[in-house]
Each structure stands twice: as structure tokens, then as C-alpha cells.
Amino acid sequence: MLTVTLIRHGESTHNVLALWSGCTECPLTERGTQQARAVGAYFADTQFTKIYASPLPRARDTAQAVLDAQPTPKPPHDFTIADIREQSFGAAEGHQTCVREPGKTLEAHFAEGKYPILYESEKHVAFPGGESVEDLTRRGEKAVRDVVLPHVVNVARSGGNEHIALVSHGLCIAQLVGAIVRLGGGTGDLG
């Protein structure tokens, strides 16, 4: 059986300031570092087969805390998985999140350097230079195929058990969960 554990990174400096983070390399806060150590301690008795992480520092540092807490011998790890990085917000990154002003188009907001939270019905819309939710969905499906599926195949062939961890970001994790359900048809069969 394959067990997949999804872990969101600890609190980052952009989280505290309510800024669009996306692919910006913002570090963990002191609280975020404590959260990373706490999640590492929580999984200290869980023997992961492999630990994967987004290359962004907030996820990579959280994954390192999980790895550091693992028993010896430490599991293999890859903290360079670009497909599980956060959604790119392009020009919005580093700007405050805001609410859309009534009667104002998105383009008018963008022209003023304002980047409002997008509606659920706007999955196809991206901030200038960024990714849409549809783009992130495709990337999440690719990550499941490239990262999770090889473990599914290995478990099916060996009859053994594996437990992998993916340390990522909130919006990406939501898409990874959806991709696992869609690609597995709700049956757990991703092959």
C-alpha cells in the first residue's frame, strides 16, 4: 500500500504581511520555523520511503525539518520538485492581497498595481505573468504522474508498502488532492 502525506510549509514572512507569495523566495518566520520543527517531531516515528519538496525556501526548509527528525538511516529526499511549487502570481507577487472594488474591472485593478482575490468562476484568469488555477491544476496532475505514480507502480509490483511525503504550498496541495482523486477515479488506482 502507498501512503502519501501532504505537508504545507510553515508560516512565511509573506503570510504574516498578507502578500501574494507565489514563487517568491520568502523565508519562514520564527513561528514558521517552530511549526516546521513541530511537524518534523510529529512524523519522527514515521519512516518515510522518500521526502519530496518544492524548491521554494519555505517548503524546502520545512521538508528539511521533517528529514532532520527522521530516524537513521535518513530516507532519500528530493527538494527540487518544481511541479509542487506554489501557483505563480506573476506581477502580483509581493503585493498585498485585496478585495475587488465594485464596478472596477480586473484590468483597471492591475493598472493601479492592485491584485484582488479572484473568484471561483475565474479559474482561467491569471495575474499578468502568472499562472491561472487551470495552469496549476495541470501542473498538479503532472506532479502526481511524475512523483506519485512511480511509487504506485513500485508498490503494485512489489506488494510492499511505501510512505512518501510531499512538502508543498496551500493552493498546490489543493490541486494535488484533486489530481489524485481525478486520476485515481476515487478508487486509489492511479495506473
Number of helices: 6
Coarse structural class:
alpha/beta
Order of helices and strands: EHHEHEEHEHEH
Percent helix range: 40-55%
List low-pLDDT spans.
none
Radius of gyration: 18 Å
Distance N terminus to C terminus? 14 Å
What percentage of amino acids are in beta strands?
5-15%
- From the spread of the alpha carbons, the general shape counts as globular
Largest sheet: 4 strands, parallel
Number of strands: 6
Mean pLDDT: 94
Name the strands of the widest sheet in spatial order: 1-6-2-3
Task: Please tell me about this protein's structure.
The chain is α/β, with parallel strands linked by helices. It is globular and about 60 Å long. It has 6 helices and 6 strands. The strands form 2 sheets. It has a 4-stranded parallel beta sheet, sandwiched between helices.
How is the topology of this model organized?
Layout: E1 2-8, H1 13-17, H2 30-42, E2 50-53, H3 57-69, E3 77-78, E4 97-98, H4 106-111, E5 115-116, H5 133-158, E6 162-168, H6 170-184
Parallel strand pairs: 1-6, 2-3, 2-6, 4-5
